[in-house]
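Usage example:
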Amino acid sequence: MGLDIRTPIGLMFSVLGLILAGFGLIGSREIYGKSLGINVNLWWGIVLLAFGAMMLVFGLRTSKAQAEAERVEH
Amino acid sequence: MNLTPIDWTIMLVYFAFVLGIGVALKRFMKTSTDFLLAGRSIPAWICGLAFISANLGAQEVIGMAASGAKYGIATSHFYWIGAIPAMVFVGVFMMPFYYGSRARSVPEYLRLRFDEKTRALNAISFATMTVFSSGISMYAMAKLIQILHIFDRPFAAMGLPPSAVFHFSIILSAAIVLAYIFLGGLASAIYNEVLQFFLIVAGFLPLVYLGLKNLGGWDGLKAQLPSSYTHSWAGMGSAQTNPLGVEAFGLIMGLGFVLSFGYWCTDFLVVQRAMAAHNMSAARRTPLIAAFPKMVFPFLVILPGLIAIALPNPTQTAAVAGTAVVGEQQAGKGLIPAKLDEQTGQPRLDAQGKPVLDYDLAIPQMLLHYFPTGLLGLGLTALLASFMSGMAGNVTAFNTVWTYDIYQSYINKNASDAHYLWMGRMATVFGIALSVLAAYAATRFNNIMDMLQLVFAFVNAPLFATFLLGMFWKRTTGHGAFVGLVSGTLAAALHHGLTLPIGASVGIKGGWLGSIHSYPSEMAQNFWTAIWAWSTCFVVTIIISMFTRPRPDSELRGLVYSLTERPRDEHLAWYMRPATLGAIVLAVAVVLNIIFW
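Running the assembly step on the lines above writes:
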């Protein structure tokens, strides 16, 4: 299929990571009693963002290389 | 439950991407092969993740955590014994015939290898099964949404009655799954399964981390539980000394051989993912790549169950008060609440006067216990995603079998490909409509659903004997296969009718023909039903084959082991070779079994 799945995965996890980390930064600290005092939104948001960015880089690099290859062929 | 806008946003982002993938794939759907087989163009790692994800429906996630809370780490047998060896076998030995024969489905392979009647038997029973499984998945999801009160607040705000939540959940899940499969077919289902795979990991990993940290790591968890909970093999020598109530032979033969190989090697729902791969070597690597995450999944889905049962009762710890799903908690154990009697509202008690625990709530309770708003949205989204991928897997398997093995084979043989593409889309629509009906049937006739699942178990149990003989013994005939399958199914029914687990009453649990043997547990009975069905099918198929005329060798090329050229993989790097990968997978599985002995 002509769609590289890594691009949507990367996009989605970047967006989710930004939302979570952003909320962890500006939101109230009181809600983290449940999670043993750890600001899980911030930390896990950063992890998801890093994963998303990595997938996005791989996905875009491959599709760029493919587009390049097609341009050379034509 | 209090969901805040941040949780809703996360859920909406996920659904937007799910539908977006369907829309993005729509323009590639030009032929029925594109739609029903994803154009056989998917890379191995994507097929591999979809291969386990299709099986990782919510029943699996919720059920394995429930089983972890009930039986402990012994639940990992369903992975390390009950999946890994079969996944290696299908990749290394069977995929050359499935993929190499160019069959478009598992029933079609049976048509090529045996005859029309064997295919019809398999296609019709499989299609019926997928519709009901998808319906049951839908029902379970709507029920869970109702119990967790996820949509109660927005519904109350809109002035709708709480009872509408159930109908809304059914319609919403049906509409979303319909939309993305109708647009992008199997490719869309596979891509979304990969998305869902990562989402489940993202949603459950922090849960396990927080739970273990809270209890003081693995050693802290062990200290809270009886030792049988943290050992998978100790006590397996006899059914009386382990929590599963099964002895090692029944476990290895019943679960590890018959049931596991019957599912992973012959069920089109999973095999279809490998058939979508872009070449033979990718198709063979699909189940092997899938085996790696499958091996570590027990830590993701079984551990939350163990943690939930090991935690101190929340009513006794002030920090977590008010997080319980079900108000009355006293009768529960750890985070697991007791089942409540619907009439009296009191905890239900078993024969010994102990409360019956609602193990299925292990995962939801854990999510509510540890996750603050934000991460809670992510966890719930992961749970909803797994319900939907379970449905989608069944629907894509149904539309392929319906279009190629039923419609094209028996109803309309010589139509254009455009017509079959259209039929594939229509099958998606009425497959989902039938699932909705099945979901509502489940609300009314719970026993009928249990009975259907029992019948499906009878039909599935002997299947692997047919494939094993068909692929590795060229003398096997179509008559032999057909009669073998029917006798295997009958043997399963007969065995179930004549035996009963200890303490169960006659009826759906067995013994309806008179009880001549009793098993220490329901699980032992299931495993032995499968063993009897498989052995009967195996023996009958051989006997009938000896008395009927085999097909000439020339017709069996590419379908039988001795008449098929081995796929060459010398040109591949070592980590791409199926046999090498298979050996690594098996070695890691052995190590895991030893560590958690």
